[in-house]
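Second attempt. The first submission of Response regulator had a stray character pasted in from the spreadsheet, which I only caught after the job came back as garbage. Lesson logged: always re-copy from the clean sequence file. Corrected sequence (144 aa) follows.
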Amino acid sequence: MDNSPILVVEDDDLVRSFLCRALAGIYADVDACATGKDALRAVDARRFGAILLDGLLPDTHGIELAKQLIVHPKATRSGICFVSGSLRHPLVMRDGVSALPKPLRLRELLEAVGLLISWSKDTASAPAARLAALNVLSAGLLVT
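This time the job returned cleanly.
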């Protein structure tokens, strides 16, 4: 079992519950919230190895939240994975940023989170490189 904390940011109760249950068996420390504001509060309080983000939250777009997280002092080394219904296929991690399509496949979820945790422990990417990776990813999420 890995001890790296994970944050799930998802406004859909069922999806959030699924993600937390699926991850809790391998990563014992899983926090969850439903809004961008609550996500920023959680990150203010502690560091996370991985953050899973819904693409569209009630108070912000996931891309905008990710931009804030990438430059947040406690989240610069947090891997970020979008979970979005606008994707058909997973987007490979680049500089600690990746994406998974809904509906989720458990194997893909666990693999993606494992890669993000490894990245957060072993690799350092400059915020500029992470923001560039986020820009590439946002094109795949059909963000305007």
